[in-house]
Amino acid sequence: MTALPSLSDLADEYEFLDSEERYRLLIDLGRKLEEMPDALKTDATKVRGCSASVWVYPTTLPDGRLHFLADSNAAITKGVVALVLAAVQDKPAAEVAEMDVAGALAPFDLTRELSSNRTQGIPNMIALVRDTAARLAA
Questions:
Q1: Structure pTM?
Q2: pLDDT per position as a tens digit, 53-104
Q3: What region does 60 belong to: left with phi over 0, alpha with psi -120 to 50, or beta?
Q4: Which residues are marked as active site?
């Protein structure tokens, strides 16, 4: 399993790239997601509102931190999924439940960089992650 880079490291790199290079960075980031078994790609783990298929499956590490498995059938969308996870991966559930994930992603200005089809599901994915964290933190 390759750990995702920190969101701040990604933002530092992203800032200096042109649009085409930003696409490549997102695609490469998506490739760093650990493989999600096909058995977990079900209707129950599917994120609603995404134009591409996106699945997110929450797990907890032995010490109680959240760890998500995720996948998408579209390369750039998978990179966006990885970007969201870079903000929350392996953090305590209580911290994720309180986190402003959309604010953490603001430096990437995804709505300017990507088509609305590629970004429309981001709020739903953020809500799923935060709701899961809130439920597990309670």
A1: 0.91
A2: 999 999 999 888 999 999 999 998 999 999 999 999 999 999 999 999 999 9
A3: beta
A4: 50
Tell the residue number behind the tokens 């977990």, with chain if given: 40
* Token reading at 13: 């790199």
Q: Which domains does the chain have, with CATH numbers?
A: 7-137 (3.90.1010.10)
pLDDT tens, residue by residue, 3-44? 889 999 999 999 899 989 999 999 999 999 999 999 999 999
Q: What phi and psi, each to the nearest 5 degrees, are found at residue 48?
A: -75, 150
Q: How many CB atoms lie within 10 A of CB 23?
A: 16
* 114 torsion bin: left (phi>0), alpha (psi -120 to 50), beta (else): beta
